[in-house]
Amino acid sequence: MAADRDEKTAEGTVRRIYLDNNATTPVDPRVFKAMRPFLEEDFGNASSLHVYGQAARKAVEDARERVAALIGASSEEIYFTSGGTESDNWALRGVTAASEKETLHLITSTIEHPAVLRTSEQLEREGYRVSFVSVDRDGKVSLDELSTAVNEQTVLISVMLANHEVGTIQPLGEIVKIGREHGIAVHTDAVQAVGKIPVDVGKLEVDLLSISSHKIHGPKGVGALYIRKGTEIAPLITGGGQERTMRAGTENVPGIVGFGEACRLAREELGEREGRVALLRDRLPAGSRERIPHVRFNGHQTDRLPGTLSVSFEHVEGEAIVLSLDNEGIAVSSGSACASGSSEPSPVLLAMGLGSELAQGSIRFSLGKDNLEEEVDRVLDVLPRIVERLRAMSPRAR
User: Fold this and answer.
1) Same domain assignment for residues 242 and 364
2) 337 and 234 inside one domain
3) Which of 265, 297, 323 is where one domain is finished?
4) Are 258 and 35 in contact (CB under 8 A)?
5) Residues 175-228 pLDDT 10s
6) Whole-prediction pTM value?
7) Residues with catalytic annotation?
8) Which of 103, 197, 258, 310 has minimal CB crowding within 10 Å?
9) Phi and psi at residue 324, to the nearest 5°
10) How many domains does the chain have?
11) What DSSP assignment string belongs to 198-234?
12) Domain of 384?
């Protein structure tokens, strides 16, 4: 069921429609129900030996098994973190810190999430060498360029599984093959992919994989890093012995429990969610092409996430469309939530070859399991009028 977001205005009741699920998702009521006891009576510290601690420890380990099951891992390979950003940081910093090579080199792509891009840039300032591999107009990484970038100092390749803005799914199997040929660890930021498409670390053969709870209807502030057995990696946070001494700090037991339940539900419902959400997404370009001229749909048209659609409109600012849709009760994004507040065009779209003006005229729809056909139809009803009005006001259209 869609979350109840009706709002009273001077014009009457406006039905709030949420189409920004790549930014965050509403907590599933079943997830909240699973978490609640650990916010009330089962409040123990999972490191304590008494009965309260034992209950918390069991809940953490049960959740670990559920996270592992969703991605085809063993529970010993799952380490809880505060979310996708920490997992990405740990992967990059942990692998480099564990390497014994004198000169260290990393490879990533130009369209990674800021958690990887900013960390890579910081490592570069600290003296590491980093290669940023380009992508084509669909957002796919250049395998030839990546292969050429490999050298004897390369210790890690980090390429996301699916892009957060345009939804393009990367040829990770080919990337892993390149890494294996040279004995290089491969990390993937799978934050936008896990729970939306099938993800199996056994088939992907990656060494590290980042996950975030709040992207799959779990609570914020918790995530995980999958670390394949035998992967050399140093701790990012030191202190106590939590997470088998690899990630210090008292466990967020309610969050971890909610994360585990969200993973259980995603595993059970994945096929149904994926198919239904893709059908809803496809209604948007089909309806938009008929009613809005001079529009471009970004990203790969087949190798993409089921719920993500990036759209560029000529002669209009994307942020103006976002604000106008919000006034109509419809929440969308002009790009990554982690890059909000920036007036610059999307780095992802620029890297894909879009001009600055077209990149600035872009918005992102990201649908989830709770969205309905009538909500998409409502967008198709109001969006053409909004774009027409904004173009009439824009000096770019004259």
Assistant:
1) no
2) no
3) 265
4) yes
5) 999 999 999 999 999 999 999 999 999 999 999 999 999 999 999 999 999 999
6) 0.93
7) 338
8) 103
9) -65, -40
10) 2
11) ---HHHH--SEEEEEGGGTTS-SS-EEEEE-TT----
12) 7-27+270-397
